[in-house]
Every structure is written in C-alpha cells, then in structure tokens.
C-alpha cells in the first residue's frame, strides 16, 4: 500500500476533492465532500482534510472539537469508490486519531454512522471504537477510549 497522508484542502486541490465520489449505494451513508467543505466553512472548528495516497487524492476526512458536548468527533470519512478496499480508510483514520490525540484535552474520540452501515461498523470496531449506547440523529455513536497505560515501567 502506498503511503497515506492527510493534507489541507487548498485552492490547488479543492476541486479534485469535491470530485471524489462513493458508490451509489453508499451515498446515503456519507455527505458529499462539497457539502462537508461548506459545513467546515460555516463551522470553523471543523478540520477538513484530503486523504492522499501516491500523491493522488483518494478520500476525505473531517474532525472537530464539538463545543456543545465538549468532545472530539470524527464527522466524515469517505474513500472514493475506485480506491476502496486498499486500506486507505484505515490508514487515514489512524492518522486522524493521532492528530486529535495530539491535543492535550483529547481523551475520548467519538464517531457516528448509520446503523445499517456494517462496513463502517467493522472498520471502526477494528480500530478500537466501542458502542457508546447512544443514538444521535438516527445514527449509532461509537467511542474510542484513551489508550491504556502500560503496566510495565
């Protein structure tokens, strides 16, 4: 697998990012990248990032500190239809989690998804997310707890 990086959305790449699409049957699970970029403009706490592999954009990730709940959230993850199944989503999630955890006030990270999106559930569980026993806007909420401290010194 090529090296995956998260990059800022810029004047040079924004059109390529909004052109990325998921499969038709996945469109009900994730907002378009155009909508997400508009949302990030209106809600400046959102951090929209392009997912790159082999110097090509392959997806989109957006996270934010949710002030109302005082929690860190991953709001979007999308991988372009022709790039799915290559490990880019997992790699991007790990990089996003690492970025959020670099903030001293970040202990738990939350994500929500449509209950019937079993592919997302499988990915998030494999990364350590667990059910938060909460439904938000019709979506199930999962959380990633802080890493356990090693008991060996």
From TrEMBL:
The keyword Acyltransferase belongs to this UniProt entry's keyword annotation: yes
Chain ranges of the N-acetyltransferase domain: 4-147
Gene3D superfamilies noted in UniProt: 3.40.630.30, The crystal structure of the spermine/spermidine acetyltransferase from enterococcus faecali
Pfam family for this entry, one: Acetyltransf_1
GO MF entries: acyltransferase activity, transferring groups other than amino-acyl groups
Keywords: Acyltransferase, Transferase
Protein name: Acetyltransferases
Species of origin: Longilinea arvoryzae
């Amino acid at each position: 697998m090529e090296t995956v990086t998260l990059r800022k959305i810029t004047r040079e790449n924004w059109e390529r990012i909004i052109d990325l699409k998921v499969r038709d049957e996945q469109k009900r699970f994730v907002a378009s990248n155009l909508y997400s970029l508009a949302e990030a403009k209106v809600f400046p706490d959102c951090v929209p990032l392009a997912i790159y592999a082999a110097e090509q954009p392959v997806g989109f990730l957006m996270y934010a500190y949710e002030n109302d709940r005082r929690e860190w959230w991953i709001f979007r993850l999308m991988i372009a239809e022709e790039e799915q199944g290559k490990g880019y989503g997992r790699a991007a999630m790990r990089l996003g989690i690492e970025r959020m955890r670099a903030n001293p006030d970040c202990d738990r990270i939350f994500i929500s998804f449509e209950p019937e999106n079993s592919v997302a559930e499988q990915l998030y569980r494999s990364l350590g997310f667990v059910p938060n026993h909460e439904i938000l806007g019709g979506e199930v909420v999962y959380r990633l707890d802080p890493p356990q401290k090693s008991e060996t010194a």
